[in-house]
Design brief:
The protein is built from three helices and 16 strands. The protein has 299 residues and is α+β, with helices and mostly antiparallel strands. β12 and β13 form a beta hairpin. Keywords: Signal.
Length: 299
């Protein structure tokens, strides 16, 4: 072996050792920073509070935090009737910050930077929204979200959790009945979906159409019903009942009009039971027809 070849091999060996040493050193630094978040580790259970302008909602929540990858990362799993999240927390030596990466069943959120400051773990989604994690003096797991308004941080949710009992299982529990409120507005919710075992019931609030005549409004009201069904993952064929409210109901003229529109839109399709209700007026003088319905799905 020539001296030149030997020098090359020695150089490569030194570079390999330096790289390995740097990697090990980097991993050790990561572990040291991750150790600062040890107060998160464990199974926790308690209440989660969501704050709206004039309302506070309270639900039961469970969280489980665990070290993985020999202490170089933490997984944080959250389960409640309103949210299920799986989050991975890591530390970057190069960027001198933590990274917080949450994922839900339906969405993967962007990675956000986090910092350990004065005993708190702070995650910034953007300059005006952040999460706070801390352990209280009494040993509770305290998590809350804040929004910056007029220079003041205001809470929009807060979790106050205690260590779960030793016989506690973090596996998500299936609720006997779950509800989903779809497209809520100030006075009502347009669609409520209720799931029980392998059935899904869908309740649609009254939908009105557009146009000057009853025929035009009936046709567009049916389209509105179809839209609401689609929002709940259903279709027109899943309807099991409909109510038709008609202003100044005229059985002779309105029935003919009704069947004409149904034939135009749906042909020979089997239709759900209907209830015709004559009324004096709707919420607006321009509105002449309103439809509501109930649908059932087998999941």
């Amino acid at each position: 072996m020539t001296k030149k070849v030997l020098r090359t091999k020695l150089t490569l060996l030194v570079l390999a050792l330096q790289t390995a040493t740097s990697l090990v050193y980097g991993q050790e630094i990561e572990r040291q920073h991750m150790a600062k978040l040890s107060f998160l580790i464990g199974n926790w259970t308690g209440n989660s509070y969501s704050f709206a302008k004039n309302d506070t909602t309270k639900v039961k929540v469970s969280e489980s935090a665990n070290y993985i990858l020999d202490g170089n990362a933490i997984t944080l799993d959250v389960n409640s009737s309103s949210v299920q999240l799986h989050t991975v927390i890591t530390y970057s030596v190069n960027d001198s910050c933590y990274y917080y990466q949450p994922t839900s069943k339906t969405e993967s959120y962007k990675k956000s930077k986090g910092y350990f400051i004065d005993g708190k773990f702070l995650v910034y989604f953007n300059p005006k929204n952040r999460l706070n994690f801390e352990k209280t003096k009494s040993g509770e797991f305290h998590e809350y979200g804040e929004t910056l308004k007029n220079g003041i941080w205001e809470k929009y949710f807060e979790d106050i959790l205690e260590p779960a009992p030793s016989n506690y299982s973090f596996a998500p529990k299936k609720e006997k009945i779950t509800k989903e409120y779809i497209d809520p507005i100030k006075a009502l919710t347009n669609v409520v979906s209720v799931e029980h075992e392998n059935f899904k019931n869908i309740y649609i609030a009254g939908q009105v159409g557009t146009g000057k005549t009853k025929e035009e409004q009936l046709e567009t009201a049916y389209k509105a019903i179809e839209k609401r069904l689609s929002q709940a993952g259903a279709s027109f064929s899943d309807l099991v009942e409909m109510k038709i409210y008609i202003v100044d109901y005229d059985p002779e003229k309105d029935l003919d009009m009704f069947f004409r529109v149904r034939e135009k839109l749906y042909g020979e399709r089997k239709m759900p039971p209907n209830v015709f209700i004559g009324i004096s007026s709707l919420y607006s003088k321009e509105k002449l027809i309103e439809l509501s319905g109930t649908a059932v799905l087998i999941k």
